[in-house]
Each structure stands twice: as structure tokens, then as C-alpha cells.
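# step 3/5: fold
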Amino acid sequence: MTRELALSNASTCFDTGAFKATLARRIAMPTESQNPERKQVLADYLEMEIRPAFEAMGFHCETLTHPDALAPFLYAERQEGQHLPTALGYGHGDVIRGLEPEWKEGVGPWALTEAGGMWYGRGIADNKGQHTINMEALRIVLETRGKLGFNAKFLIEMGEETGSPGLRQICAAHRDMLQADLLLASDGPRLNAERPTIFLGSRGSVNIDLVIDARAGGHHSGNWGGLISNPGIQLAHAIASIVSANGQIRIPEWVPTELPDSVRRALADCEVDGGADGPTIEPEWGEPGLSPAERVFGWCSFEVLAYKTGNPATPVNAIPPRAWARCQLRFVVGIDPEQILPALRRHLDRQGFPMVRIESTGETMFQATRIDPEDKWVKWTADSLARTTGKKPAILPNLGGSLPNDIFTDVLGLRTVWVPHSYPGCSQHAPNEHLPPDVLREGLLGMTGLYWDLGEGGPT
């Protein structure tokens, strides 16, 4: 029984359509966690799809519940030896709303459909395709070797798309049960479709509402223009004081004091490329003096997600009484999350905008996390992927987006190594979610090689 045979079996699994059939069955289940009518489907996904797959591999499965959670969690464990390395896997079976009417002709959210050389379906990228790859890779190694050669644990949740309610409490309550040498999981995109990628954490994220309520109602702009303040103009200037015309953040507490050398070294080898369907990078936007990879993976960014004043649908000749903006800060390790809003309040007051009210959106704040890019498990993972794919993996200190990774680093105290099986142009969360089958195939082979190598002992 050899590594080469395991990789051959992985190729056969994909090329014969067996992998596609398993994934199609899972995509067909409309596990929309934002839709209360799908509550039973969330539970069914675990009981009808995930539990049987793990139990067929000799895993012991346990259902975990928490009152804050939308649905149960499924914990699966296979113990092979007390002194063997242990890997904790993670995935989520819930998806963003299907948005059925908005998909292009011939494809839809609840059927895996091949069109134009792509595979379409809701969850194929986020996250059903990704945890299906990892589960199938475990199965292939087990069937090829007769054992894994390591201890495997896996946690599947059904509420990630609504902020993972209950996940932190579940991990805190079962901390001993979930202990491992590392979290080895998959979510998010590769750096690009062609290059295997490893990321080691995620940027933090907080959404903020900025509001000016100037008066009870609108007033004729001819009679009152020049006499009373315009909240739309005031809020525009307040936002302009936060970020420059080129996107550089102007609040010192919102940017790191430095970019660590290990982060710079890792990102020096990474080129951001969204592919043919991605937007063109604008070199003058963002923090000056940084490469594109450093700006999105090593630095912070501030965005205005929505802005409203007056009635955009039917403008009238009146000074509006109110202005509102939904803003977002993506931040990296080194930013104190407890100081984000106080620093904003102090800044706005200094700049002459005490009338701007800062409101919470009620959404979960994701914390910034990353482990050392030169950690031994990172090098081991990169070497294994390179051996399987013949490509040098990109190592990202953290994902540009956000994940509940701090639960694994801070609550469980784990190293976190993520191997994504998607790409930036996948239309994740949008209509027409898709993946190139080559990315899925390479992901299956890469994870089969990783699990095989872990069964050989992992890093020394």
C-alpha cells in the first residue's frame, strides 16, 4: 500500500464520477440557514448525509446542541493510537440563500450542473464541495492503507452563514474532546485557480453604521438651502476624514504598527489574481508602499458598503433630514478590537463631527487571527501539497475575508492550517456559484496526499 496507490484511487474516485455523485446529492439539499423554513433540512443534512459517511469509515459520531444554535452540530472521531498525531477538521453544511430566479439559464442552486466547463450549484464552493473533498480523502486513505495512521476528529456546523451561533460555546464546553495537534480544514478561495494555497488565519471584520439625524423632516432646498445643514454632505465629509481619496486609513489605531518580517517573506511569493472574471487591481488604491498581496492579506481596509440620504428612487427638491452609511473595517492581528469604536468616536469628535452617531449593526465581530507562516506544520503542509501537485503552494498569513478562526486558536488553543479548494471568481454567496472541476480534482488529490503523509507521522 503506497502513497501513489492512494493518489491513483483518488483520481479514480473523481474521474469515474463517484465524487460528483456524492457532491450532487449534498448540493440537492437546500440548507439555507437564513431561511427559517429550512430548519429541518439543516438537521437532515447531518443525519442523512454526514453521519452515515463518517460511520461508514469507523468514526464515532455524536450530536452536540446549544440553545443559541440554529441546528445541531455533528462531531465525528476516529481514534487509532494514543501517541499518534491528531487532526481536527471543520466544515459547514449550511449555505447562503439559493436566489433561484437570479441564476443564469440552465443552472440553479439545488442541482450540480456542468456548463461551460464549470460545475454549478449552491455550496459547491462554500462549503459542501470543500468538506466533501476532505471527507472523501479520509475515506480513500483509510481504504488504501486499511487505517488512517493518525487520529481524526471532525466538527460540522449548520450555522456559519448566520455567524456561527453556538460554535464558540460548543468548543468551550467540549475543549478537551476537541484537542488536536492542529486544525486542518478547508474554506475560502485559493490565491488563484491554478495555485494550491495555504492560509493560517483570517482578517477580523466589524460592520459599523454611521448616522446623522439632523431634524424631523425634509425642507425645501430653495427656501432653506444655505441656512440649514445637509446630513448627506456632512456624512460624506465625515467618511472622507476616516479614509483618504485613495483608500488609505487615517485612524492610527486602525492600522498595524508594522508588517512582521515572516508575513512579508510569505507574501513576497504571492501575486493577487482574480482571473479573467475578476476586477483589475488598482495600484494606487489602499496603503501606499505595500504590494497588492500585502494590502489585502497583511493590512487593514475600510469600506463603505451602502450609503443613503433622501429618497434615491424618487429625489425631490428638499434637504434630507437624515443620512446613513453601512461601513466595514477588515483588520489584521495587532489591532485591538476593543478600541476600534472608541478610536472612531475620538477621531470624529476631533474632526468636528460630533453629530455623527455610531451604531452597532448587531452582527458578529470576527476577530483577526494568524499563526506564524514559518511554523513547522505550515512547512510540512506546503511540502506535502508540492509533492502531490508538482506546484509550489502559496502561503497566506491569513485569509483576506473572515472566518470564526479565533474559536480554534483562542478557545481551543490550536494551530490552524487551512487548505482552500475554491478560487476568487467562484461567485460565492451570489447567483451562479461554481468551481472549475480541475480545482476540485486537485483538491481531492492534495488532501489525500496530506492525510497519507499525516499517517506517516507528520512533521518531526
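# step 4/5: annotate
The mean pLDDT is 96.
# step 5/5: archive (pending)
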